[in-house]
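Recap from last week: sequence in, structure out.
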Amino acid sequence: MTAEGKVKLKPGDTIGILGGGQLGRMLAMAAARLGLKCQVFSPDPDSPAFDVVLNATCAEYADVEALELFANDVDVITYEFENVPAATAMVLAARRPVLPAQTILETTQDRLIEKDFVKRLGIGTADYADVSSPETLQAAIARIGLPAVIKTRRFGYDGKGQSIIREGDDPVRIWEELGTKSAILEAFVPFEREISVIAARSVDGQVECYDVTENEHRDHILKFSRVPAAISDELAAEARAVAEKIATALDYVGVLAVELFVVTENGKPKVLVNEIAPRVHNSGHWTLDGASISQFEQHIRAIAGWPLGKPVRHGEITMTNLIGDDILTYERWLAVPGATVHLYGKGAPRPGRKMGHVTEVVPARRK
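Predicted structure tokens:
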């Protein structure tokens, strides 16, 4: 820590990472290249991030003693997933800087609070309503209309914790199957494409955005990311401006992803914010091989108090997620010119499990 209370690491210092999945693994690898050490905290003894660090803590997030020992061993703490338990963040924040800050988690862990935050910034979203009972769900449907998407306010990802309600469906049955007392109903958006912006913000307020990514999902899980997105330069600039505005309003330090829908309104394309992910993101994996600096290194630089890099894209890029049994085809990808294979070191494949990804780069032609 500096005299002003800001984090300023030096080579040899240690970053603590909450979560031991592939994102934590790639963060630790990026930190190592910069001469920084990492210690990973995860309750899963088979965490793939454990394989790339010297020190790891395998304990539950509610284990206060383990959290305190972990905090004593590191200089700053970050996380690879946004659903860090509030009590865990509080214990750690009392001992070491936690970046991004705990207050940001309070905004982004709850879909309703997040939507309200984005709306206050004057940024467009799908119409939405708070739902806490079958009666409030019926009232929300009457106002928003169908089809609509009902989502749990907390702990949903990759399509989990949500359901589409269509004409003729039984809303009460869907509510009961969702198994929650707090949800949000969102108007179904007839989007043209899904895009995302990966943005990094330093402790000094510098913001660097990567080129807009176009995303294609299969069974609610990201399958392909393509860069640049097939949108106009004007719309791309608007999307980046939205991400920068959100990062600045949050006083964010690190990398975040803003997921957006491209829609047409009055014959003109515009963007609506879908979700904010306060961490490095699957749709930014292309930056490992397709940009001058990866999202993982940007995040490490930001939380270390170092200057951000200016990301320069190397060409036209496609990132393909290897999901479940897709991993069994890894050898085929090794023979593809211009492709780089990333395997996460996980155990047996299962449906919906992200096992690795492949980046294909077509270099930009020199003029």
